[in-house]
Each structure stands twice: as structure tokens, then as C-alpha cells.
User: Fold this.
Amino acid sequence: MYPSLIAILCVLMLGLLFSPSASAGGPPTHSPIMIQNDTDFSNCACVTGGDGSKNNPFIIGPWTINSTSGAAIFVDGSTLTKSFVIPNLTAAGNSNSSSRGVVLQNINASGIQVILAAVTGKQTSIQSQGVGILVTNSNYVTLDGQGENPNGPGIANNGAGTINKNAIGAIDVENSGHILVEGWQMSANGVDNQPDWVTLDPSIGHWGVGGVRFFGVTNSIIDHNASNNCTNNSYSVFNSSHNTVSSNTADYPFTMNFMVADGSSFNLVTGNVASTGDFFGYLVADPLPGTTTLATYGPSHDNAFTGNVSHTDGPTGAERHAGVVPAFLGGFVVLIGLRPEMVMFGHRQYRILERRLG
Assistant:
């Protein structure tokens, strides 16, 4: 848990005392909220507590924001000096590709934490959007559904924030760093895109967002989440480095539960439990030689897999230049690469074997 999250949770509890009275169906309704400068916090009629400092951030909500074709809450941090927390949001859109539950962009874009920013709460419910939460070009952002299981992987039995039934996926993080994603229940997100097995083009059109997607992300954490029936991937890491994917559960994806690809390096995938992947439980992959994708992102390397469990129907697919490490704690790990390299599984190293299939 990031240190700033402790402050967020304390402020959240105080803020709820000052929030508007909720209706029987949930939090009170509000029109879509857009924050682009500090004065918007005063003008939006959406702040229910706090003074905007790191120790006492503005509290936006809890609110119910429905039937929007854009974002329920949009925050551009390019000029912000005030901190904020979005607690227990209820949002439902119209399921088109442009709708979003929460969009956070340019938060602490310099890489220095100027403000505290978070989306949090067990009562959060985001559904029927294109993407539930989108974070771009940002640093030091906390996304916490507060459902972390203290006794094992995944979420606890006493509830978690939910991000369900979103057309493209639950949580998409792009070109960002120091992001924490934890404690969410994510179900039935995404559609069955046609995966790009040849060039491994990481675009959403080919792989979707599914549960949690990292693209161009560094020094971040995906921890203690539960992804169920999210397609194409439960958790995917593209062109991202120095991240930790830990103690998550994943079930019934199309095509796979965990994917690390396209120039990703020095990532740790540990303590996860994966089940019933249609193709793979865990996949480490590179584009084929000569592809534009390989020229753009380079090969993946130095990714470590430790203590993961897989109960999967896969793998069933085949790629040229593929290597397979069998009997990985009850399942399989498939590694697709253009050259031999060393990858850590458990306490042993395996060399990716290059061989041509077909």
C-alpha cells in the first residue's frame, strides 16, 4: 500500500460525514463532472469535503452519474495544484466506445507528486461504459476498490468496488508511472477481439483492455484484484517495465489470463492464481522478426514469474519461434520470442528455446 493511500482513506471517512444525503437507490445524482483547473473544484458543485491539500484533499462525491456518452468524471491535471479523491462513484453509461466512468489525464505529469489523486471505495460501481477507468500520462495515482483479501490472492468476501460490463474493459493505464491498482472486482468486461498473434500489435482494437491493461507504464502495481470473464486478457502488460503484478485472481478470459509482451522488461508476476484461460494461463511474447511492432518496442526481457498457480485449459495455440516451459504449477507458461533468453520461474531459470512450428 502506498503511504499516501493511508491519508486518502482517513479523508474519505471524514468526507462521507459531509456528503449529501443519499437516496434509497444509492448516492445522489449529479451531471457529468469536468475538472481542468483549480477553480473548477469550486464551480462544479461536486465537492463535498476537504480543502484540496494532500492531507485533506477535495472529496468529489459520492455521486451517481448515469447515461453519459463522454466521461462521468473527467480530470485533467495539467495545471492543477489541488488534491482530490473520488469515492464510491456510481456510474453507468451507454456502452459505446467513447463513454468512460472516470478519466484522469496529465496528473503529476512531470513525474513529481504535486497533488494526491485517487479513485476509491467499496461502494464504487462503474458499468456499461466503454472503459471503466482510464489513466493517461499521469503519475502517482491510486485506484483502490478497497477489497483486498488480507489472507490470500484476490478480494475479500466483505465487498469491493466493482467495474463490470464495460464494452472495452475495466481499467486502462497508458504512458504513466507510479500507479496503484488494487482491490477491484472486475467482471464481464470487454469483447472477443481478434487477437494479433502475428505482429502482437498492442492496440485496443486487437487485444482490448479486459481486466487491467498497462501500456507504456513503469514502476506501478496491480495487486489483489479479481478479474472474471474479462476479454481479451485478464491482465496485460505491453511495452511496460519495472512493474509488479501480484496476488490477483483471474478466471474465464478469452484469450489468456496474464500477458507480458512488446518490449516489456524487469516486471515481476508473482503470487497470482489463474483459471480456465481459453488459450494461455501466462504468456510472455515478442513480435516476430521483421515486424513493425518489434522495431517499435524491441524484445521483452528479464521478466520474473514466481509463485503463480495456473489451472487452465490452455495452451492450444502455436506461433513460429516459440518456446514452452511445461508443468508450471499445474498449468503452462508459453513464451514466444525471437531469440533465446533467460526467464525466471520460481527459483529456477529457463532458457527460451527457439524452434519453428509448421
